[in-house]
């Protein structure tokens, strides 16, 4: 009976060890193969996010210009389109889940920002300058641009990518606009 128990234990240990070894080898191969794919996805995402932030910075600097005969102010800069993630090809499962969540939340954040902007334009902004509308638009897109740059920066650091040139004017412009309008909002609340 002792021989039978010993061989049973040996068989179980061998089966579990073999199963574990197969999973470990599979995981290693998958990560080694997906690393270049993950890096490629990350490169594409960084450029999409930075392009989006650049467009947000343009909106954040738009004070409007008078139109035609009446002189009522209109936007000069178009709002950026939502990021088209279908352009990024590859296995998104290789990305960090927190990064995926933040990336995928940007379109929803833009939807919410547009609701606030449209509400302000409809109910709180007065012709001809529409100051409240433009300030809300600037604030919301400064916030979106900063969020996009924050995500892009984290992806850069996680993957060892070089720093971006957008830090020269886009990041300071967005931060300055955000801080200025945030301070102004605080004064209104007090």
Briefly summarize what is shown.
With about 190 residues, the chain is mainly α.
Walk me through the structure.
The chain is mostly helical and 190 residues long. It has one domain (36-189). The chain contains 4 helices and 2 strands, in the order H-E-E-H-H-H. The protein has helices spanning 2-60, 97-123, 131-159, 170-189; strands spanning 65-66, 73-74. It has a two-stranded antiparallel ribbon with strand order 1-2. The longest helix has 59 residues, at 2-60. It is elongated. The model is unreliable at 29-33 (pLDDT under 50).
Task: Outline the secondary-structure elements.
Layout: H1 2-60, E1 65-66, E2 73-74, H2 97-123, H3 131-159, H4 170-189
Antiparallel strand pairs: 1-2
Helix pairs in contact: 1-3, 1-4, 2-3, 3-4
Shape: elongated
Tell me what portion of residues adopts beta-strand conformation.
Answer: under 5%
Q: What is the domain tally?
A: 1
Determine the fraction of residues in helical runs and give it as a percent range. Answer: over 70%
Give the termini separation: 84 Å
The major pleated sheet works out as: 2 strands, antiparallel
Low-confidence stretches: 29-33
Could you tell me the number of beta strands? 2
Overall pLDDT confidence: 84
The secondary-structure class comes to: mainly alpha
Largest sheet, order of strands side by side?
1-2
The number of helical elements comes to: 4
CA radius of gyration? 26 Å
- Helix and strand succession? HEEHHH
């Amino acid at each position: 009976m002792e021989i039978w128990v010993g061989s049973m234990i040996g068989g179980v240990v061998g089966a579990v060890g073999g199963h574990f070894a197969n999973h470990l080898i599979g995981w290693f191969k998958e990560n080694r193969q997906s690393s270049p794919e993950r890096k490629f996805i990350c490169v594409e995402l960084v450029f999409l996010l930075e392009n989006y932030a650049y467009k947000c910075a343009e909106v954040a600097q738009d004070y409007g210009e008078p139109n035609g005969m009446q002189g009522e102010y209109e936007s000069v800069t178009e709002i950026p389109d939502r990021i088209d993630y279908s352009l990024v090809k590859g296995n998104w499962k290789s990305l960090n889940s927190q990064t995926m969540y933040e990336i995928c939340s940007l379109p929803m954040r833009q939807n919410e920002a547009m609701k606030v902007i449209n509400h302000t334009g409809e109910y709180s902004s007065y012709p001809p300058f529409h100051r409240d509308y433009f300030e809300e638009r600037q604030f919301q897109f400064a916030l979106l641009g900063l969020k996009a740059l924050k995500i892009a920066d984290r992806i850069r650091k996680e993957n060892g990518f070089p720093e971006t040139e957008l830090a020269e004017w886009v990041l300071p412009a967005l931060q300055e606009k955000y801080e200025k309008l945030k301070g102004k909002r605080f004064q209104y609340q007090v």
